[in-house]
Amino acid sequence: MIPGPVPVHPRVYRAMSRVLYGHRTKEYQTTYKETVALLQRLLHTEQDVLIFAGSGTAAMEAATANAIEPGEKVLNVVNGKFSERWSELTTAFGAQSLVQEFAYGQAAEPDAIRESLASDQSIRAVTICHNETSTGVLNPAKEIGQIVRDYDRLFIVDGITSVGGDYVYPDKWNFDMLVTGSQKCLGVPPGLGMIWVGSRAWKKIETRKQRNPTYYLDLLKAKKRYDGFGDSPFTSAVSLMYGLRESLIIMFEEGYEQRIERHHRLGRITRAGYLGMGLDLLADPAHYSNTVTAVKYPSGITDKEFRAQVRNLGILIAGGQGPVKGKIWRTNHMNVCTERDVLATIAIIEIVLKRLGYEVPIGSGVLAAQEQLLKEKF
Amino acid sequence: MIPGPVPVHPRVYRAMSRVLYGHRTKEYQTTYKETVALLQRLLHTEQDVLIFAGSGTAAMEAATANAIEPGEKVLNVVNGKFSERWSELTTAFGAQSLVQEFAYGQAAEPDAIRESLASDQSIRAVTICHNETSTGVLNPAKEIGQIVRDYDRLFIVDGITSVGGDYVYPDKWNFDMLVTGSQKCLGVPPGLGMIWVGSRAWKKIETRKQRNPTYYLDLLKAKKRYDGFGDSPFTSAVSLMYGLRESLIIMFEEGYEQRIERHHRLGRITRAGYLGMGLDLLADPAHYSNTVTAVKYPSGITDKEFRAQVRNLGILIAGGQGPVKGKIWRTNHMNVCTERDVLATIAIIEIVLKRLGYEVPIGSGVLAAQEQLLKEKF
Which one of B215, B220, B242, B321 makes the best mutation probe of the A interface by having the most chain A beta carbons within 10 Å? Predict the structure, then answer.
């Protein structure tokens, strides 16, 4: 139940086990193009989606190294561990990182971002993490996108734990670049980083005055190769691509709306269960993530002991990172996760909390989760 | 029979299909460290081996971006498509590429490299491709390593199609960095790039005056994370790592010497078969690769038609690249490849050549290959 790598559908494993086509064959190029088309369908877009052998961080680096010029000022909106990565990348690639910070658990505030853009005309780009995996917060990407577009700046979004699990409309929401990875809501083992690049980002890349050195993650090279041959400039992670294609096919068998609504439902049930035990969630209730939930430890419960006991009962959950390390735990509701999984998780966690001395009438968490499920359409 | 991605052992597929451990769990870190230890055993080394989610080119970029300073002069020994990549990377990362060229099919000449180093004291590093996949040439890495060490320069080696298929001793042969990838002689699907870093390379990295921006491929960060936790700074390609570990276990079950000698034997049988058909090989006979063989087209045979017909009979082979595009074909003898595979390949190729009008007494290639096999120890 950790927020990635998530459990993988058996059909995805099977697809990954097929004999490898040569990565420069027509057959593989056909598979590759089908996979890109499925990703485009998932993102409601006809713009470019490029895929790298690498983690989601590689795709984040591709965005930074290609679209941000050395010396440029970037507004890095930071409200968790993963949004912080944009700031590290901005600095690593010689640009100026202006950090706009919000507390762990709070969402990025569009008005504050508007003020920053209004007060400093030299900001060239804004970065956010759409769904902050480290805090269980879903940032208002659409609202921020409108503001960034109003100021004609580049809007670069990390969608690593939103794409495939929540609504994401890069075109409609005025994104310029959107990155994601294989091992979260897309339901594939880690090793693929993907990037959607909008026309304004291409224009920025094509009119760069200065540029960082790029080779492996050179977006223009990747686009040229894909447009010409339907594959990637360097050897593609063939087996993971078979897995991604299969996982996307499974997604559309379930249906886009159905899939996203299932994630929302699982989020509501999970939160109902935790709240029913009298626990506090980390995230601002107006901005709950639908793919991961972060829960504050009640006093007297230690992270290490708690997670070890939960694990002994067969469920792997995640701790906190950065300033909330030791103060929260996190459980995912992504990809093949079902009501069965979240109910079992609530039940086990309730038992471990009880055993460790937390005063909770046994069954209250599961009951609250069940009551929520009873209200849901399914 | 293309030189990578190569066929994968069923046990490797099975290993890749196991439930994913969380990439930050003790269990996964144990698996990770075991995998690194197996790679170290394969390379007869106790020095660092770092693994990236990415292709072999990502590992080449890690070497260049970390160990070469902008403006430095690098002697890029080029005798094929893959050695050329070092020159492209050198240039991409702001260093000065001095290309020492040898014809496609010729090996790099140690004496000529010595002369270059003697005549230009400002050269800081030398790159080679150990086994040139594009030409079927095995470069004399040991001899070149001695020369580069004599001049106290950094020696950076691409071992993508030699590691696991031929003898490679990075310590004894005076390498400073050695890169490889998962999908060739290591027998795993593509998606992992590996780099061995010797103590002199670390010293160079630690004493850089100028540096290129790196983040995803930052070697110091990767070493720090591995030394501290036994895993990688960014999400590891978990399923491919399971596959790599299994493939390395299979290698040592066969035995190191046995495995390398099998590759040598398959190389001899393959070459005997082609030569028995009266064909010419591209490579200098003193420097045949033991993992891939390149054959010149006899006049009147066109690449496209030939390879299409071979493929119709169930065997995928590779064409030429760069200046030898359309002039050669290539077949691999890597990883799980056996005598059965190379004999079948020779037999099929003989039939297609005959059908396309090449004057060859039918059976002569297979016969020559069989005669070679009869002489071999097995």
Answer: B215
> Do B180 and B282 fall within a single domain?
no
**CB contact A318 to B (< 8 Å):** yes
CATH for B330: 3.90.1150.10
Number of domains making up chain B: 2
Which of A4, A8, A235 is closest, CB to CB, to B56?
A: A235
**Dihedral in degrees, nearest 10, Cα atoms A343, A349, A352, A357:** -120
Give the model confidence (pLDDT) of A30-66 as tens digits: 999 999 999 999 999 999 999 999 999 999 999 999 9
Residue A227's domain comprises 10-252
Optimal mutation site among A11, A26, A55, A89, interface B, most CBs of chain B within 10 A:
A55
SS3 string, A49-110, reads: EEEEECCHHHHHHHHHHHHCCCCCEEEEEECCHHHHHHHHHHHHCCCEEEEEECCCCCCCCH
**CA max distance for chain A:** 64
Task: Decide if B5 is inside a domain.
Answer: no
Q: Final residue of a domain: which of B212, B230, B252?
A: B252
Judgement on whether residues B210 and B260 belong to the same structural domain of the protein = no
Q: Tell me the whole-structure pTM to 2 decimals.
A: 0.96
> Is A374 touching B (CB cutoff 8 A)?
no
Minimal Cβ distance to B88: which of A4, A8, A215: A215
- Which of 22-51 (A) contact B at CB < 8 A? 22-23, 25
In this structure, the answer to whether residues A93 and A178 fall within a common structural domain is: yes
Q: Is the ipTM value over 0.90, yes or no?
A: yes
